[in-house]
Amino acid sequence: MIKANNVHKYFGKLEVLKGIDMEVHPGEVVVLVGVSGSGKSTLLRCLNFLELTNEGTITIDGKKVNQKKDNLAKVRAEVGMVFQHFNLFPHKTVLENVMEAPLMVKKMEKSKVKTMALDILEKVGLSDKADVYPNKLSGGQKQRVAIARALAMEPKALLFDEPTSALDPELVGEVLQVMKDLANEGMTMVVVTHEMKFAKEVADRVIMLNEGVIIEDADPDTFFNHSKNERTRQFLEMVNV
Amino acid sequence: MPVPEIFVTFYEVFMQTYKGFLKAGLLTIEITAIAVVIGTVLGVIFALMKISNSKILQTIANLYITLIRGTPLIVQIMFLYFGITSIIVLENFWAGAIALGIHNGAYIAEIFRGSIQGIDRGQREASLALGMNSSQTMRRIVFPQALRRAIPPLGNQFIITLKDSSLVYVIGVSELFGLANRVAASNFKQFETFLVVGLYYLILVLIFTALLKWYENKLDVDK
Predict the structure, then answer these.
(1) How far, in whole angstroms, is CA A102 from its chain's centroid?
(2) Which of A85, A100, A153 sits opposite B122 (nearest CB)?
(3) Carries keyword Nucleotide-binding (chain A) (predicted)?
(4) ipTM for this model
(5) Cα separation of B32 and B30, whole Å?
(6) pTM attached to this predicted model
(7) Per-residue pLDDT reduced to its tens digit, A101-151
(8) Residue B60: is it exposed, middle or buried by C-beta count within 10 angstroms (0-12/13-18/19+)?
(9) DSSP code at position B141
């Protein structure tokens, strides 16, 4: 579904990604972990072309993306993204947030979009908030709207960039539950997170980044219980699992 | 106690001139309104040029803003009036309004540029990540939010425009200040006449300020 080949990314002279190779298969949930500055968020943003790679290729659903020539908006329309700080549109209601992209990008009929948007809001448990503006929502509700907004484009895969890091602890659960449900429905997901419990329970694979390099790529059981990698074990000790 | 002389003459001047000043006031409002529309349109265009990726567009916008901000409005009015009327026939009213509009465009461009760049980067990213293209992102997501932010400084700029419209008297437009000049020259009561015209400007500004405040409150409530 998503494939990165020898991806390099520089910010000025600083090399943030040093030749990343990874593949995410359809229906797979891959969790990206690593200390801050390891490049995991940058990698995720490269997969959606919010950052352009300096070298290497990214393949989405079998098509190698040419960053210069391809219509990146079209590519992005097929891969959803959920941000740490939600980034909901504050001048639009919850419903309008969810309806915006299908209306503008897919040019779908308004009544159909509305029905679909309400269905999705129902799914994330927020149909009663449809006509509310985002500033009236809690962090957890905001993030569920953000997930609904991404789902409305019927993406082939979803990228999550630390979706629970900006939440109060008691609100983390409701967001993780929505993500679990999605995983169970077979959504392809790449998740950057510090929620190790989520990684253990939901991930098919855990990928560990360190200084711009993938140092481990394993199933959760191996990763958490039998890792032979020194850095991984240090990291797991640090995050206390 | 007798009423002081100044109040009597002020009252006389007021009563003798109010019909003319009401007409002139309408002209002032018209010139301001036209200048505000032209200025806002130019402001949006040049703000977008300035934040675009094209070096050429950026240079054009910078040149425009530098020239306008670097020269007095009265010179721009004269320059444009004699420049345009040497090519096409144009009423001095329109020449004045257009000059004032072009002048305002530069300041409004800077207001819009600031408010667009003040919108959180995440808004643009979220929009792009949904598959919207750059122009949809600007039009639907970034600009509406920037506009909200721009309203207080825009209102301020519009008040400046209203007052600056007095300068078109130099090309012979009989708006408030132009008329005051003529009246003062004929009745020799300069002090009272300019007091009267000052009052008219003050009233217009106060009305506009109140409207602006009402609109800002309405926006706050809506959100």
Answers:
(1) 19
(2) A85
(3) yes
(4) 0.94
(5) 5
(6) 0.87
(7) 999 999 999 999 999 999 999 999 999 999 999 999 999 999 999 999 999
(8) middle
(9) I
